[in-house]
Design goal:
This protein is an alpha/beta fold. It is about 35% helix and about 20% strand. It has 12 helices and 14 strands. The strands form 2 sheets. Strands 1, 2, 3, 4, 5, 6, 7 and 8 form an 8-stranded mixed β-sheet that branches. α3 runs parallel beside α4, α5 packs across α10 and α7 runs antiparallel to α8. The protein is elongated. Bound molecules: adenosine-5'-triphosphate (ATP) and magnesium ion (MG). The site of adenosine-5'-triphosphate has 19 residues, from α5 and β10. Pathway: Cofactor biosynthesis; thiamine diphosphate biosynthesis. It holds the Pfam family THUMP. GO terms for molecular function: ATP binding; CCA tRNA nucleotidyltransferase activity; tRNA binding; tRNA-uracil-4 sulfurtransferase activity.
């Protein structure tokens, strides 16, 4: 969009409902996160906060808007032009904005004016009327006040006015880093990156863990897990996210040799124990999985309960009630889909007649003695891998 220095108007939502101390801290973090994201993407910009908005000044409003829309806490962002708060300057900017008006599209002008009532010799309805005639003259398009195809927005403040035509949706949620740390069991499948994203969206820093199942896993699964970490890193302000790969091949071989119908559940329990040990190491408050009720035999309500009994740390399952089609759609939207379409390796571990409603006692009784004693050593041998290495 031409017609004045570039800016982005960034809006946030839930933060605004917090008490003033919490709100101030969260607003500061949101701003810092956005600054870090812009810097990581080499977008030159300055970020200011004013009332309940964030303003970005930049020569590249498009790239800065993309960065804002990948920043948790942001509800929407608009690439805009900043002009003097005069009728002439606003009309000029509207004329420039209308230069790419889609053929045949109707339009409306939505103007707001803030600050001292006497600061401007015009009202917001004046802006709408005069702005409307400018756009009409430029495009020949028809006004539709009820349901316009394109809206031209004017936000006129005392010192400057912003002109824009888009409100792009951000992810919402809370700024990353406001809700502590969670360990995410990331399988290389489709669900777990979405589960990770959900926790990140609510402000959690995540520590992704991949459990290497040895001969029952596979390098392609591990590679998929790593590339989803790369996709998720886009949402981490400084782009820094690494995968912990915990070698569990020997434990899986023991399960294959010694456990029958409840083998898969014991494997889940081992995974949770691994995640719990990592959580202790990194100071995380919980473990996250991509499980969804009834999606697999290991994910019935009873089996999830039997699985959870192996750990004392809370296990969060943000996808518990979500349908697969819905999860797939979200994976596409957040950019983790392409990298996560292979089936996970642990399918090879599944017994032909899996238990669908185990008790924790029965699962435990079928487990080899000292099974969990090997978890600590496996976690100690974990490898930390960055997606770009
Ligand atoms: P995903 O759920 O990631 O799409 P999936 O549905 O094929 O993969 P499931 O067998 O349903 O995998 O696994 C359930 C959950 O267990 C996963 O969402 C993930 O949180 C965890 N998980 C499974 N395998 C692994 C692994 N090898 N390493 C880490 N976590 C795993
Ligand atoms: Mg799954």
């Amino acid at each position: 969009m031409e017609g004045g220095p570039g800016a982005v108007l960034v809006r946030y939502g839930e933060i605004g409902t917090k008490s003033s101390k919490v709100r101030t801290d969260m607003e500061r973090l949101l701003r810092e996160n956005l600054e870090a994201t812009l810097a990581a993407r080499d977008v030159v910009a300055t970020v200011d906060r004013e009332w309940s908005r964030i303003f970005v000044r930049t020569d590249d409003p498009e790239a800065a808007t993309d960065a804002a829309c990948d920043t948790f806490g942001v509800v929407s962002a608009s690439p805009a032009r900043s002009v003097d708060p005069t009728m002439d300057a606003i009309r000029e900017a509207l004329g420039a904005a209308a230069s790419d008006h889609p053929a045949g599209a109707t339009f409306g002008v939505d103007a707001t004016r803030t600050g001292d009532r006497d600061a401007h010799p015009f009202s917001s309805p004046d802006l709408e009327v005069e702005g409307g005639s400018t756009v009409e003259a430029e495009t020949g398009a028809t006004v539709d006040l009820d349901d316009p195809d394109r809206t031209y927005y004017v936000e006129c403040r005392e010192q400057e006015a912003f002109v824009f035509t888009e409100k792009r949706s951000g992810p919402g949620g809370l700024p990353l880093g406001t809700q502590g740390t969670a360990v995410v069991l990331l399988s290389g499948g489709l669900d777990s990156p979405v589960a990770a994203w959900e926790l990140m969206k609510r402000g959690c820093t995540v520590v992704p863990v991949y459990v290497d199942l040895g001969p029952y896993g596979g390098v392609d699964h591990q590679a998929r897990a790593l590339s989803t970490v790369g996709e998720l890193a886009r949402y981490v302000p400084d782009g820094d996210l690494a995968l912990r790969i915990v070698p569990a091949g020997e434990i899986v071989e023991t399960l294959m040799a010694e456990v029958g119908a409840t083998r898969m559940l014991s494997l889940r329990r081992v995974m949770l124990r691994i995640a719990e040990a990592v959580a202790r190491d990194v100071g995380a408050h919980s473990v996250v999985t991509g499980e969804s009720l009834g999606q697999k035999s290991s994910q019935t309500g009873g089996n999830l309960a039997a699985t959870d009994a192996a750990v004392s740390i809370p296990v969060h399952r943000p996808l518990l009630t979500r349908d697969k089609t819905d999860i797939v759609e979200q994976a596409r939207a957040i950019g983790t889909f392409d990298d996560s379409t292979v089936s996970v390796g642990c399918e090879q571990v599944a017994p032909s007649h899996p238990e669908t409603n185990a008790t924790a006692e029965a699962v435990e009784a079928a487990e080899p003695d000292g099974l969990f004693d090997r978890v600590g050593a496996a976690v100690d041998r974990a490898e930390l891998v960055s997606p770009d290495e």
